[in-house]
């Protein structure tokens, strides 16, 4: 995926080199000798048999793709025992445009110091002629073995055998670290006179010095003039090749007392004055062979040796024993300046791991300094600047000394708001999370840390790469970008730690946020390289390029972030991936640089390092296409049909399309022709369109050739078709683009490539810009007035109409079952054309807008939409651009009655308006307000099955013909059904139970009730009467207890009936058996009369004012009667006589004879069978 802007991903240049030698590890654009070059570092390149690293130069022109090696691996320092193998020269590159030089570094350059190998690092300036000019090694310090040693050797006749002394000299020389920058040795032999065998620096290696020592013969002599030998060695030996600053060491070897002992005191004093360290070796062979006491000799030799004697004085029994002190002597000599027991200072500094040019020199990062806590060094024309270790102690405390902060992994500089130069350096391993410090550094070595920025995530390598940016090119730093290439998020190494720190005068830098990249950046090491480049899109702000060398499975990619004001846009504007450039690229984006315009288009071309390759990504110029549309005439006059198209009279017009090219880059396009295309669309998104291009102009897109600063136009004809909609302007769209998007300049993506314009219609009014309409609104509803309702056959019998005559006034009736209401409206325009005519409709909350329907096949359409999401407001626009003069439109508004809001009125307020000022605004508003009465659809019924009870005399029980579980209980059930669409609140239910006699005897009572399907109802039972006093009462003359013969108990209920609901109301009662047995009656009916009615203030009305429903409870009682004994006896005798007469009659008829005959017939057969068995 290539998200392209003006880095050309189709045309690029690749310089190839050795992958094994890391060609492309660093890149720098460089200008020298009147030509433009690309410098490419290859830190593993070999020079001879040593892998020194090197730099290549590649010409930045389109004709050559060959790079030449600069052979900088020959870089060397004098007077140093250097090791250049694996020094990684080219690991850093920094170009200096001021003098066309550049600096390259090999941070692993090492030198020998005794038995140690110190990697202090080395850099070198390379001149404009690509020659090594000035080595830079600020971390290099004198070795501890930087010594000049003069051996003063006694060669008098008493020394015997000589080869033992010679072997000792050879052996001790092999222990010395002889070489440039280390130890050099001279030998003086004395006896009666002094001879220089060879001088300091005469031989540069151990082998050479040993070979010279093998040729030293014993000079002999009768005297041992030790003072003379010391004076000659001091005054002459150290001057023959001696080095300033070298430690002076003299080794005196003798076997006897000196013959010039009076001069010995002065000789030793002069040596001390000249800072010569004296080692004295007494060979006692001569004394032992002759049995002489050596006490005076030993005293003299100890006098010669520097203090303390135990460190500088040796004695051996004879010449052959000299070899026994070789190791001890070597150790004592090279412990003078040794670092045993001390921590590293700059010995492993690796100076040049990072580099940055500043005004007065070059700033170098030294990650290995001070036990790998790191340091920042500086090289100026006046010398090196090395801040002391104590400068870092506050931000890099001693307790974290073993963490290895790697300060100097990256270095840079910035200009504060006050114009001061400050420095910045990264320590990506500080406390495992990383740190960046902002500091000042004076050439005296005084380093002051002003601010520290801390990383947040362990192992993210925060501060490994950083760059300060002056976005608006005002000479002051605006932001500091700090990378954390190994930042993890949600289990992925996203590298999204591209932290922006905004510069402010008060706090230096404040975290502003992080740059955002695509999902491709997982495990990409985003931020491994950062490069500030000049303005690319002509807005005057510098841009940032970020490398992600491991993206796309290690192929690599880079991201371009654009500057804006004093910061960066957080979202990248272009992504260039190696996969889209060349299939063979790897680690594309590991280094970046862009300061030169190689292809002459006024824009910087980008240099990108990859593994074994360096790529030049060409930039492309940025242009904008300026477009204008000019219509002739300026407005559409539909009243003037001036031409024919397709056999119809139409209005013909033309439009001039003019395009020009505006270059956003420094280099103009006056000398370059650029082909552009444009496409013209009339009446966009309208089908069929009201405007049509002439047949000869319909070929799209069309092409124009533009030149920078020039303008080109084309005239295109079109016609306006007959349409009813000629008030709404024509939408005209012009789209432009480059004919060849892969060549030449690119379009500015922030500049629109679409131009939209409107072509208005002439309004047809007397004043060209103002019309004076006269809108008139008429309306009425389809609701029946109360007079109309009561005048109908169906309505005359309803309670509304029977109350005090027919209601007068504006009262209207909502019939039962009605869910909708229709408003019939008519809008007229008696004035000029009304543009933007609309009708605003607002209603009471009990009306819901349903639809608006235009009637009479009008060509005028009306469209409605809700205002501010309010359901009771609508704004309806006349869909035609204007309402013609003397035109009208009829429409119906349909509303639904709300089920949630119930009011005793409706209101519909309609107001019409237009863009013009209405001539007579009084008739623009129609307010419909109607008080309402709602016809109910209520069915009130009772349980049709009467209740019958049989009361047994002198018993507490009764029998009932009903299905009640208990013989003395009963239910009175009523059904109230609301079939209407509106709920019925506050329905009053009243039941009167005539259950009390005139004497006060209560025959039954209501004990409980139940209401189903009527939530929120409230009922009250009749009060409980006292039943202790029951009076005998004869009711045999009454057939029914009612309002005339009894006293009632009243049951009340206030019910709320939902719409389309059926409410069941049951009254539960119990017979008063004791009372019923006390009073006398044979059959008695107890009347229950129930009614429903509405509140007087209710907007609803019933068909009957107060419908009544009656239920009768029938009671019957059995009387007790005395039966006479004679009646019982007579009845029994009469029954027996009747039975006898019946039997006699049957006998006479032969009933009993038929049975006997059958038995006789069956008897013989039975007998026969028995006989056979016998």
From TrEMBL:
<feature type="repeat" description="FG-GAP">
    <location>
        <begin position="574"/>
        <end position="634"/>
    </location>
</feature>
<dbReference type="InterPro" id="IPR018184">
    <property type="entry name" value="Integrin_alpha_C_CS"/>
</dbReference>
<dbReference type="GO" id="GO:0098609">
    <property type="term" value="P:cell-cell adhesion"/>
</dbReference>
<dbReference type="GO" id="GO:0007229">
    <property type="term" value="P:integrin-mediated signaling pathway"/>
</dbReference>
<keyword id="KW-0812">Transmembrane</keyword>
<dbReference type="Pfam" id="PF20805">
    <property type="entry name" value="Integrin_A_Ig_2"/>
</dbReference>
<feature type="transmembrane region" description="Helical">
    <location>
        <begin position="1125"/>
        <end position="1147"/>
    </location>
</feature>
<dbReference type="Pfam" id="PF08441">
    <property type="entry name" value="Integrin_A_Ig_1"/>
</dbReference>
<feature type="repeat" description="FG-GAP">
    <location>
        <begin position="448"/>
        <end position="509"/>
    </location>
</feature>
<protein>
    <submittedName>
        <fullName>LOW QUALITY PROTEIN: integrin alpha-11-like</fullName>
    </submittedName>
</protein>
<dbReference type="InterPro" id="IPR032695">
    <property type="entry name" value="Integrin_dom_sf"/>
</dbReference>
<keyword id="KW-1133">Transmembrane helix</keyword>
<dbReference type="InterPro" id="IPR048285">
    <property type="entry name" value="Integrin_alpha_Ig-like_2"/>
</dbReference>
<keyword id="KW-0325">Glycoprotein</keyword>
<dbReference type="GO" id="GO:0046872">
    <property type="term" value="F:metal ion binding"/>
</dbReference>
<feature type="repeat" description="FG-GAP">
    <location>
        <begin position="512"/>
        <end position="570"/>
    </location>
</feature>
<keyword id="KW-0677">Repeat</keyword>
<dbReference type="GO" id="GO:0009897">
    <property type="term" value="C:external side of plasma membrane"/>
</dbReference>
<comment type="similarity">
    <text>Belongs to the integrin alpha chain family.</text>
</comment>
<dbReference type="GO" id="GO:0005178">
    <property type="term" value="F:integrin binding"/>
</dbReference>
<feature type="domain" description="VWFA">
    <location>
        <begin position="148"/>
        <end position="329"/>
    </location>
</feature>
<keyword id="KW-0732">Signal</keyword>
<keyword id="KW-0401">Integrin</keyword>
<dbReference type="InterPro" id="IPR000413">
    <property type="entry name" value="Integrin_alpha"/>
</dbReference>
<dbReference type="InterPro" id="IPR002035">
    <property type="entry name" value="VWF_A"/>
</dbReference>
<keyword id="KW-0130">Cell adhesion</keyword>
<keyword id="KW-0675">Receptor</keyword>
<dbReference type="InterPro" id="IPR013649">
    <property type="entry name" value="Integrin_alpha_Ig-like_1"/>
</dbReference>
<dbReference type="GO" id="GO:0033627">
    <property type="term" value="P:cell adhesion mediated by integrin"/>
</dbReference>
<keyword id="KW-0472">Membrane</keyword>
<keyword id="KW-0479">Metal-binding</keyword>
<dbReference type="Pfam" id="PF01839">
    <property type="entry name" value="FG-GAP"/>
</dbReference>
<dbReference type="GO" id="GO:0007160">
    <property type="term" value="P:cell-matrix adhesion"/>
</dbReference>
<dbReference type="InterPro" id="IPR013519">
    <property type="entry name" value="Int_alpha_beta-p"/>
</dbReference>
<dbReference type="InterPro" id="IPR013517">
    <property type="entry name" value="FG-GAP"/>
</dbReference>
<dbReference type="Pfam" id="PF00092">
    <property type="entry name" value="VWA"/>
</dbReference>
<keyword id="KW-0106">Calcium</keyword>
<feature type="repeat" description="FG-GAP">
    <location>
        <begin position="9"/>
        <end position="67"/>
    </location>
</feature>
<dbReference type="InterPro" id="IPR028994">
    <property type="entry name" value="Integrin_alpha_N"/>
</dbReference>
<keyword id="KW-1015">Disulfide bond</keyword>
<dbReference type="GO" id="GO:0008305">
    <property type="term" value="C:integrin complex"/>
</dbReference>
<dbReference type="InterPro" id="IPR036465">
    <property type="entry name" value="vWFA_dom_sf"/>
</dbReference>
């Amino acid at each position: 995926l290539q998200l392209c802007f003006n880095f050309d991903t189709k045309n690029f240049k690749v310089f190839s080199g050795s992958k094994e030698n890391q060609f492309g590890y660093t890149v720098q654009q460089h200008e020298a000798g009147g030509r433009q070059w690309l410098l490419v570092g290859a830190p593993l390149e070999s020079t001879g048999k040593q892998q020194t690293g090197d730099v290549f130069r590649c010409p930045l022109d389109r004709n050559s793709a060959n790079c030449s090696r600069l052979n900088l691996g020959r870089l060397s320092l004098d007077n140093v025992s250097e090791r250049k193998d694996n020094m990684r020269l080219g690991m850093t590159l920094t170009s200096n445009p001021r003098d066309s030089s550049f600096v390259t570094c090999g941070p692993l350059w090492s030198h020998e110091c005794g038995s140690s190998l110190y990697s202090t690092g080395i850099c070198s300036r390379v001149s404009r002629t690509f020659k090594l000019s000035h080595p830079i090694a600020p971390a290099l310090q004198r070795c501890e073995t930087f010594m000049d040693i003069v051996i003063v050797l006694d060669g008098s006749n008493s020394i015997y055998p000589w080869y033992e002394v010679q072997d000792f000299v050879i052996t001790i020389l092999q222990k010395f670290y002889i070489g440039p920058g280390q130890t050099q040795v001279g030998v003086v032999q004395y006896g009666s006179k002094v001879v220089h065998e060879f001088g300091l620096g005469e031989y540069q290696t151990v082998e050479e010095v040993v070979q010279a020592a093998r040729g030293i013969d014993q000079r002999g002599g009768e005297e041992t003039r030790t003072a003379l030998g010391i004076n000659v060695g001091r005054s002459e030996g150290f001057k023959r090749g001696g080095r300033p600053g070298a430690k002076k060491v003299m080794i005196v070897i003798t076997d006897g007392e000196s013959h010039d002992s009076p001069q010995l005191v002065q000789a030793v004093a002069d040596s001390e004055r000249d800072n010569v360290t004296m080692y004295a070796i007494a060979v006692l062979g001569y004394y032992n062979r002759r049995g002489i006491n050596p006490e005076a000799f030993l005293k003299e030799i100890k006098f010669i040796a520097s203090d303390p004697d135990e460190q500088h004085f040796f004695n051996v029994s004879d010449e052959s024993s000299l070899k026994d002190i070789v190791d001890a002597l070597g150790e004592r000599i090279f412990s003078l300046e040794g670092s045993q027991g001390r921590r590293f200072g700059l010995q492993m500094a690796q100076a040049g791991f990072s580099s940055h040019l500043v005004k007065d020199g070059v700033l170098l990062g030294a990650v290995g300094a001070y036990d790998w806590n790191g340091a920042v060094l500086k090289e100026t024309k006046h010398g090196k600047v090395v801040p002391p270790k104590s400068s870092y102690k506050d931000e890099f405390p001693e307790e974290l000394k073993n963490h290895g902060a790697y300060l100097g992994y990256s270095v840079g500089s910035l200009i504060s708001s006050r114009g001061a130069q400050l420095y910045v350096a990264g320590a990506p391993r500080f406390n495992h999370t990383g740190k960046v410090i902002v500091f000042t550094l004076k050439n005296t070595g005084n380093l002051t840390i002003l601010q520290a920025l801390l990383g947040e995530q362990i192992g993210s390598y925060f501060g490994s790469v950083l760059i300060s940016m002056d976005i608006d090119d005002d000479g002051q730093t605006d932001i500091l970008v700090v990378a954390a290439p190994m930042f993890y998020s949600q289990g992925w190494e996203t590298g999204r730690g591209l932290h922006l720190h905004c510069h402010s005068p008060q706090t230096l830098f404040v975290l502003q946020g992080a740059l955002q990249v695509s999902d491709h950046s997982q495990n990409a090491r985003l931020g491994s390289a950062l490069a500030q480049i000049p303005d690319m899109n002509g807005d005057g702000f510098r841009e940032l390029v970020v490398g992600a060398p491991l993206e796309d499975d290690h192929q690599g990619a880079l991201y371009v972030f654009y500057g804006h004001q004093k910061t960066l846009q957080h979202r990248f504007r272009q992504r260039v991936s190696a996969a889209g450039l060349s299939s063979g690229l790897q680690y594309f984006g590991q280094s970046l640089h862009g300061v030169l315009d190689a292809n002459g288009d006024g824009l910087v071309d980008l240099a990108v390092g990859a593994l074994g390759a360096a790529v030049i990504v060409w930039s492309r110029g940025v242009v904008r296409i300026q477009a204008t549309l000019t219509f002739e005439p300026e407005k559409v006059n539909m009243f003037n049909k001036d031409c024919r198209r397709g056999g119809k009279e139409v209005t013909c017009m033309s439009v001039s399309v003019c395009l020009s090219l505006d270059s956003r880059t420094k280099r103009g396009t006056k000398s370059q022709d650029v082909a552009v295309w444009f496409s013209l669309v009339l009446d966009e998104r309208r089908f069929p369109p009201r405007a049509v291009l002439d047949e000869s102009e319909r070929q799209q897109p069309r092409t124009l050739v533009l030149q920078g600063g020039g303008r080109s136009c084309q005239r295109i004809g079109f016609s306006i078709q007959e349409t009813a909609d000629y008030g709404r302007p024509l939408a005209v769209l012009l789209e432009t683009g480059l004919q060849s998007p892969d060549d030449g300049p690119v379009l500015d993506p922030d500049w629109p490539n679409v131009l939209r314009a409107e072509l208005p219609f002439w309004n047809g009014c007397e004043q060209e810009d103002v019309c004076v309409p006269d809108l008139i609104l008429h309306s009425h509803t389809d609701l029946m007035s109360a007079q109309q309702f009561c005048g109908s056959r169906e309505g005359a019998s309803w309670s509304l109409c029977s109350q005090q005559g027919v209601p007068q006034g504006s009262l209207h009736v909502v019939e039962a079952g009605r869910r909708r209401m229709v408003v019939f409206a008519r809008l007229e325009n008696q004035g000029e054309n009304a543009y933007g005519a609309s009708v605003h409709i607002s209603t009471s909350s009990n009306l819901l807008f349903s639809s608006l329907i235009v009637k009479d096949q009008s060509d005028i359409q009306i469209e409605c939409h809700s205002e501010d999401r309010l359901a009771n407001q609508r704004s309806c626009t006349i869909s035609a651009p204007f309402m013609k003069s003397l035109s009208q439109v009829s429409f119906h508004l349909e509303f639904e009655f709300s089920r949630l809001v119930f009011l005793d009125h409706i209101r519909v307020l309609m107001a019409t308006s237009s863009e013009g000022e209405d001539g007579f605004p009084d008739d623009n508003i129609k307010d419909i307000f109607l008080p309402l009465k709602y016809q109910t659809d209520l069915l009130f019924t009772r349980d049709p099955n009467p209740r019958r009870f049989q009361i047994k005399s002198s018993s507490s029980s009764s029998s009932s013909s009903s299905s009640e579980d208990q013989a003395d209980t009963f239910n009175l059930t009523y059904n109230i059904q609301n079939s209407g669409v509106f709920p019925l609140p506050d329905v009053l239910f009243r039941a009167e139970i005539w259950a009390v006699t005139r004497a006060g005897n209560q025959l039954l009572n209501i004990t409980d009730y139940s209401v189903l399907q009527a939530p929120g109802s409230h009922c009250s039972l009749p009060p409980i009467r006292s039943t202790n006093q029951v009076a005998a009462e004869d009711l045999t003359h009454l057939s029914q207890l009612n309002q005339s013969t009894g006293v009632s108990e009243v049951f009340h209920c206030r019910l709320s009936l939902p719409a389309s609901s059926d409410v069941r109301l049951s009254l539960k009662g119990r017979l008063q058996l004791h009372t019923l047995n006390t009073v006398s009656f044979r059959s008695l009916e107890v009347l229950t009369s129930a009614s429903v009615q509405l509140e007087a203030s209710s907007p609803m009305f019933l068909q009957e004012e107060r419908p009544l429903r009656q239920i009768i409870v029938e009671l019957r009682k059995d009387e007790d009667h005395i039966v006479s004994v004679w009646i019982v006896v007579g009845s029994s005798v009469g029954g027996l006589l009747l039975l006898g007469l019946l039997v006699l009659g049957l006998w006479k008829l032969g009933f009993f004879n038929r049975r006997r005959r059958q038995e006789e017939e069956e008897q013989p057969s039975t007998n026969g069978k028995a006989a056979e068995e016998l």
